[in-house]
Design a protein that fits this description.
Blueprint: H1 7-17, H2 30-36, H3 41-55, H4 59-93, E1 97-102, E2 105-110, E3 119-123, E4 131-143, H5 145-148, E5 154-155, E6 173-174, E7 179-191, H6 197-200, H7 214-243, H8 248-262, H9 267-284, E8 287-289, H10 293-298, E9 303-307, E10 318-323, H11 327-335, E11 341-342, E12 348-349, H12 352-363, H13 368-374, E13 377-381, E14 389-394, E15 398-404, H14 405-408, H15 417-428, E16 432-440, E17 448-456, H16 461-472, E18 476-480, H17 485-494, H18 504-507, E19 508-509, H19 514-526, E20 531-535, H20 541-546, E21 549-553, H21 559-564, E22 567-569, H22 574-614, H23 623-633, H24 635-642, H25 665-692, H26 695-716, H27 724-728, H28 733-751, H29 756-759, H30 766-794
Parallel strand pairs: 9-18, 9-20, 18-19, 20-21, 21-22
Antiparallel strand pairs: 1-2, 1-3, 3-7, 4-5, 4-6, 4-7, 8-22, 10-17, 11-12, 13-14, 14-15, 15-16, 16-17
Helix pairs in contact: 2-4, 3-4, 3-8, 4-9, 4-23, 7-8, 7-9, 8-22, 8-23, 9-22, 11-12, 15-17, 16-22, 22-24, 22-25, 23-26, 24-28, 25-26, 25-30, 26-28, 26-30
Bound molecules: adenosine-5'-triphosphate.
């Protein structure tokens, strides 16, 4: 067989021909990304305010608003830049791979490193990594819809097709971007990257739009609603003030203040950051998110349908039992129809079941290489999970066959009776059982039984714990396996997946075909479940697409399944799915509590401004002061809040219903009462100070109360059920740092005289700072007390929400 390129030659060719990649559309230039930050109604409003202030001679205000706009744009730019980098990193992590023969060995390399002259090794489920000419093909067919639009698999053969044949009839070629539907083959690469059939039409491929998640879409709606609400209020208040005889300038200032107060500037950034951080945390736990909405859906998952082999179990098979008259002959026949390759050091590539067989055979001196040399293959009937068996016809005219016992034994000529009983016994011990037989000629019938092989596949210990955690979290685990029902049940019991009282038919699906997977997903969905489904084979793609969350295997899976998935498990481990569910719940909660935190602040500011108007008082806070609060003393704690580490009790409660609004009744009630409390406190201080002090000084005090109230309340907002100290005083150092920094910045603008005209404030004495800080502590304390009170009322351990 062709030895393929040497690695040295491959490297040289990579340098000469370039990476095997399609050119992407040009990235957006940085200055465009920067300019893009100056959009949205709020920004236009502020720009307007900036221009009006300048026109009215309020140069300080104009500069300050301009500076804030600039800071906002820089922050937005950096966020977008960082997010783009994260996406690029993810893309390279989930980039496709290809199997090639190099230095005479099968190797897995990144598809980008495939070069002309490489020998591609193809197997059902692979994405073809480059254009190539077939050297060998066994029952090979590929799906070429991406190129030709043809949805039926095209059959491929190694004999040359006429050179002038149209693309769809080139049966001796495989093409980049197509997928292997059945069979196996080897092909020599003829073109890579842009020098492929796909490359020729690549400029026609639109770059995919970044997808918004349902949450982001819903929040856009909330944002728009708030904007209209606020514009309406502005008009009403402006009209009232004009009627009262206020000057145009005053009316304009109060209108801008109101608008700034009502709009939560940090809203969009909060969600983006929560999702980006979540994606990174999941990557650290071996879960690569391909589609952002999956992060949200994860927290609502109620059923995880998982493959058994390699996901619940380690997938490291070992031969435990041999049954038959002649073990040597049994293993020889089994090794004679393996495709896996065992290296001299005991490692290998290919199906773990076959590797285990080859290892057992090697112990008896039987080597596949020798068999391939002595008895070259004539024909193959490849394995697929529907037939559950495979066979190879060799030059001695013998057909070597192995497969699931109940598929093979009915084809055996005589003496299968005892084998059936033995197979049943081995299966009920949790062993995978293969029957091995030989025949004459091409037909898989009239066979002679060589014996049975029983293989064990130990459960992953961490998966047992994860199954227990999932159960407590109200998430059911459903095992789907191609193995025998007895094998499957034995392992399900051992892992605690099947417990007394469980309906085995519901949680264990054995001898399942890919179509069965689709049926299982549909059945659970019909019952209202939110379903996550794992898959590895080519035929699993439809089930992954149908599930709410399709999860592909990173190690054992095929490229086709990865393309169809929402998430990829880098370690193929069930426990990683449960870890991801926990992260998903944590991300959702972080977003929720940060929204409540931000909106309560905005509600408070709005009520303060409206209250002042209602009582006929001057504007308590200037636009710039409000912007400072929203972007700095509110915005920074919000960023720390949204990155809170996932709490310990996230898996102690049932999944959140998928349709539940992120801001429900309970959240709106908190927003309103906390807002009202903050408004009352600051308004009272303002009204009182107006009697004894001048206007800027009175504003000072109101400003200070709001800032302290907001900063301190961030600490009480980490959980809706547990107090700050119960959550862990030191568990979010970022938040502590931000709170200290915000207070420091606030004192700075009070104490550094050059900043005074900018914020229109005067210095405060220690007594004033002390009093406003004390008042600012009240909302945080009230929040903590409300948790303790509601706990007493229910006199139960904390229930929903962390
Ligand atoms: P799971 O569905 O639990 O992940 P799996 O995907 O490995 O397991 P299949 O590959 O569909 O399941 O295997 C189904 C059955 O086919 C096995 O129980 C075994 O009897 C048989 N089988 C598996 N691999 C081979 C093979 N390489 N050659 C012959 N028969 C096989």
């Amino acid at each position: 067989m062709d030895q393929g390129l040497t690695s040295g030659e491959a490297a040289a060719r990579l340098a000469r021909y370039g990476a095997n990649e399609l050119q992407r559309a040009e990235a957006t230039p940085p200055w465009k990304v920067f300019l893009r930050q100056f959009k949205g109604a709020l920004i236009w409003l502020l720009l307007g305010a900036c221009v009006v202030s300048a026109a009215l001679g309020e140069v300080g205000d104009a500069i300050a608003i301009g500076a804030i706009l600039l800071i906002n744009a820089v922050v937005g730019f950096l966020q977008e830049y960082r997010a783009e980098r994260a996406v690029l990193a993810l893309r390279s992590m989930t980039a496709p791979h290809a199997r090639v023969r190099r230095d005479g060995e099968a190797r897995v390399v990144p598809a980008a490193e495939v070069v002309p002259g490489d020998v591609l090794l193809l197997e059902a489920g692979d994405l073809v990594a480059a254009d190539a000419r077939l050297l060998e093909a066994h029952a090979l067919s590929t799906l070429e819809a991406a190129l030709t639009g043809e949805s039926v698999p095209s059959e491929k053969r190694a004999d040359p097709a006429p050179p002038e044949a149209p693309l769809a009839e080139r049966h001796d070629r495989v093409f980049l971007g197509t997928a292997v539907a059945t069979g196996t083959g080897a092909a020599e690469v003829t073109g890579t990257g842009m020098k492929t059939e796909l490359g020729r039409i690549a400029h026609l491929l639109a770059t995919a739009e970044e997808e918004e998640t349902p949450l982001q879409r819903r929040l856009d709606q909330v944002g728009r609603l708030l904007l209209w609400l606020c514009l309406g209020l502005v008009v009403v208040v402006a009209a009232a003030n004009l009627a009262r005889g206020h000057s145009w300038l005053e009316v304009l200032m109060s209108s801008v203040s109101l608008a700034v107060a009502a709009v939560p500037e940090g809203l969009a950034a909060v969600v983006t950051i929560a999702l980006a951080v979540g994606v990174q945390r999941m990557a650290a736990r071996n879960v690569l998110v391909r589609k952002l909405p999956a992060v949200e859906t994860l927290g609502s998952t109620t059923v995880i349908c998982t493959d058994k082999t390699g996901t619940l179990t380690t997938g490291t098979m070992a031969v435990r039992e041999l049954w038959g008259p002649d073990h040597q002959a049994l293993l020889h026949a089994a090794a004679a129809n393996c495709d896996a390759e065992l290296a001299a050091d005991g490692s290998g590539t290919g199906d773990p079941t076959e590797l285990a067989i080859l290892q057992a055979a090697a112990l008896r001196g039987i080597r596949r290489q020798d068999i391939e040399k002595d008895l070259p293959r004539r024909e193959e009937h490849p394995f697929d999970s529907e037939r559950k068996m495979m066979s190879v016809l060799r030059s001695d005219g013998m057909l070597y066959l192995k497969g699931a016992a109940e598929m093979v034994l009915p084809r055996v000529r005589d003496g299968a009776g005892q084998a059936v009983a033995t197979a049943a016994e081995l299966s009920s011990r949790g062993l995978r059982v293969l029957a091995v037989a030989v025949g004459r000629g091409d037909r898989e019938e009239d066979l002679e039984l060589r014996g049975l092989i029983g293989l064990s596949d130990p459960p992953r210990t961490e998966a047992i714990e994860a199954i227990r955690q999932a159960r407590r979290a109200g998430v059911r685990t459903v095992m789907i396996t191609g193995d025998h029902p007895k094998t499957a049940e034995a392992i399900a019991r051992e892992m605690g997946l099947l417990q007394p009282g469980d309906d085995p038919g519901e949680v264990v699906h054995a001898r399942a075909t890919p179509e069965d997977k689709l049926k299982v997903v549909r059945a659970w969905k019909a019952k209202g479940a939110v379903v996550a489904m794992t898959g590895d084979g080519v035929n699993d793609a439809p089930a992954l697409k149908e599930a709410h969350i399709g999860i592909a295997m990173g190690k054992g899976g095929t490229e086709v399944t990865r393309e169809a998935s929402d998430m990829v498990l880098a370690d193929d481990n069930y426990a990683s799915i449960v870890a991801a569910v926990r992260e998903g719940r944590g991300i959702y909660e972080n977003i929720q509590k940060t929204l409540v935190y931000l909106l309560a602040g905005n509600a408070g500011e709005l009520m303060l401004m409206l209250g002042a108007t209602a009582f006929g008082l001057p504007i308590p806070l200037l636009p710039l002061q409000l912007l400072w609060i929203n972007l700095v003393t509110d915005g920074l704690p919000a960023l720390a809040l949204v990155m809170d580490p996932a709490g310990p009790d996230l898996l102690e409660r049932p999944p959140r219903p998928l349709q539940e609004p992120i801001l429900g009744r309970a959240q709106w009630i908190t927003i309103l009462w906390v807002g009202a409390l903050e408004a009352t406190l600051s308004l009272a201080v303002f009204a009182w100070a107006l009697r004894t002090r001048d206007l800027p000084h009175a504003r000072n005090l109101a400003f200070s109360v709001v800032v302290f109230a907001e900063v301190l309340r961030a600490m009480a907002s980490r959980s809706t059920t547990r107090t700050y100290f119960e959550v862990g005083a030191w568990s979010n150092m970022r938040l502590i740092a931000v709170v200290v920094a915000s207070i420091g910045l606030q004192l700075l603008i009070h104490w550094v005289p050059p900043l005074h005209p900018l914020f229109d404030i005067a210095p405060m004495d220690a007594w004033e700072i002390g009093v406003t800080a004390g008042l600012g502590l009240i909302p945080a304390t009230a929040l903590e007390l409300s948790k303790l009170l509601s706990r007493q009322k229910h006199s139960a351990p904390p229930a929903r929400s962390g």
